[in-house]
Amino acid sequence: MELKRLISDSPVVNAIFAVALSYYLFSGSSPEPDSAPIEIAPDAYLYNVDLNDPSQSILNYSNDVSAELTQIKFENQAVEEDIRRLLSDGELKKSTTILLEIAAIAIQQGDKKKLGNIMLLLGKAAINEQELDSAEVYLLEALDIALEFKDNIAAANTYQQLGRLHIRSRELARNAAEAYEKLWIARYQMYMGQYREAKVNLDQVIESNLSIRRYGAAASAYETLSEFHQRFHDVYMAQDAAMEAARLYASSGQITRSQGILESLKNEGLDNLQVASIQGEIDELFAQHLNDVSQNARARDYQMLYRHYNARGDYERAWKLRILASKSLAKTSSRSMFHRQADVLAILYNSNFTMNKARTYLDQASNLFSVEGEYELSSSTQDMYSLIY
Length: 389
Hints:
Elements: H1 11-26, H2 66-72, H3 77-88, H4 92-108, H5 112-128, H6 132-148, H7 152-192, H8 195-211, H9 215-231, H10 235-251, H11 255-267, H12 272-311, H13 315-330, H14 344-371, H15 375-383
């Protein structure tokens, strides 16, 4: 590939590419071990976002699910309290199974409005837990029901959440991009001897990647952190960072990289008891990964059967299969949805299109709120435009 094909029209991307190339010449290590290399698109811009500034995050924007829980009108108060507790604890998968069982009963009773409220609740909760693909499925189902009943308020609420979903997707892309940029900069700073600045950036990169569940990128940053401590002959801290990288790689299925790190630690004189302990952790994490893969595959099969029988009108059988799919997913680890993610620049480039979707959905929500005389809700929806960038 000719070098000029990687040159972007964006000065920011070109600056990052220059740093990346400089480090590559001296290291050969990639900050995104989970991803296949791609060419940098001309309009893949990077943004500087303060990951610790709550005002720049919509994680807590309109994420209260109390209203939807109230709308569902549970027949059993104990069940409602269980769901409320599970959602507040971030146990989306367990609460999803219970809610889908209630949804199946609603279908049998012909209560489509209750079904719509449940789908809206699940969509909102899934956004909060960063499971955006699942959230979109639930919200589009809720929207179909709202439009069928010509319920403008329900439709507006759903459009607003779809807008929020795409804003969240864009936010995650920006955060991933900043972490990617900082990792290259930190490595370059190490090469230039700017160790204090490098350490600050490495700590931020690790924290950021873990918060947005990019575990492979976090593992790569831990490897760089281990190299950082080795330069100061801090054996304990270097080993600690390397072991954390090994754990993250094992939990995401990259057992070869994990074992390679452990072998290096052995050669560097790590105590045999520690080696055995870490080996046990790695084996357990990898076994959990294999279980996740198996359960996810089973869930996909159930979901395909659900769609088949649902299309044929056999709703009872279809929903039994959908609940089985949910139960399979409930047996997976919290990180199973995030084992493999696309290259950060691909995510950032694609997020440009999510901004357009966000604007479209928010426009529809604001218009419907205005039609129903809910001008305050319309105004608050318009306020969300400022989050699209």
